[in-house]
């Protein structure tokens, strides 16, 4: 295929993709902005584990928890044996790990991430969601008190 035909073909594909995008998006209602928005100090407002995952985690770990590689490497959370350890998940969320920012307090944010953080109840909710969804089956819940106890050695309290 010559260069002119390749360029024409690419433009045609782009046009089809742009027309198909709204159709592929479907009629799903947008998330309730008030539920997802962080407060002025950056505290995440959502309290449900699924909503927190959708607001905070899925941007890197993807909606179905499959992870991603690109500008960084984001591990899959779906069917991940590491989710068997609730303390591991809590400490990763609170303190961050490798290229994952910390969400433990308003003081723990990285400069490249819009400031957002979670309290103990929210951390417990998202950990419980991760452990019992996305193909993971670890139904034993962790409580906000458990999260507080895990945070205590670090003194990282909101």
TrEMBL record:
<feature type="domain" description="Cytochrome c">
    <location>
        <begin position="44"/>
        <end position="134"/>
    </location>
</feature>
<dbReference type="Pfam" id="PF00034">
    <property type="entry name" value="Cytochrom_C"/>
</dbReference>
<dbReference type="InterPro" id="IPR051459">
    <property type="entry name" value="Cytochrome_c-type_DH"/>
</dbReference>
<dbReference type="InterPro" id="IPR009056">
    <property type="entry name" value="Cyt_c-like_dom"/>
</dbReference>
<feature type="signal peptide">
    <location>
        <begin position="1"/>
        <end position="25"/>
    </location>
</feature>
<dbReference type="GO" id="GO:0009055">
    <property type="term" value="F:electron transfer activity"/>
</dbReference>
<keyword id="KW-0408">Iron</keyword>
<keyword id="KW-0349">Heme</keyword>
<dbReference type="InterPro" id="IPR036909">
    <property type="entry name" value="Cyt_c-like_dom_sf"/>
</dbReference>
<dbReference type="GO" id="GO:0020037">
    <property type="term" value="F:heme binding"/>
</dbReference>
<protein>
    <recommendedName>
        <fullName>Cytochrome c domain-containing protein</fullName>
    </recommendedName>
</protein>
<keyword id="KW-0479">Metal-binding</keyword>
<dbReference type="GO" id="GO:0046872">
    <property type="term" value="F:metal ion binding"/>
</dbReference>
<keyword id="KW-0732">Signal</keyword>
């Amino acid at each position: 295929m010559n260069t002119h035909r390749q360029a024409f073909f690419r433009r045609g594909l782009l046009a089809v993709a742009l027309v198909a995008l709204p159709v592929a998006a479907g009629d799903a209602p947008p998330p309730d902005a008030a539920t997802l928005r962080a407060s002025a100090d950056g505290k995440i407002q959502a309290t449900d584990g699924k909503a927190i995952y959708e607001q905070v985690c899925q941007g890197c770990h993807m909606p179905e928890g499959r992870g991603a590689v690109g500008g960084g490497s984001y591990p899959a959370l779906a069917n991940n044996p590491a989710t068997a350890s609730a303390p591991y998940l809590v400490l990763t969320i609170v303190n961050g790990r490798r290229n994952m920012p910390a969400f433990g307090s308003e003081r723990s944010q990285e400069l490249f991430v819009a400031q957002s953080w979670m309290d103990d109840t929210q951390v417990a909710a998202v950990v419980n969601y991760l452990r019992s969804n996305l193909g993971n089956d670890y139904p034993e819940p962790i409580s906000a008190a458990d999260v507080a106890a895990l945070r205590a050695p670090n003194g990282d309290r909101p």
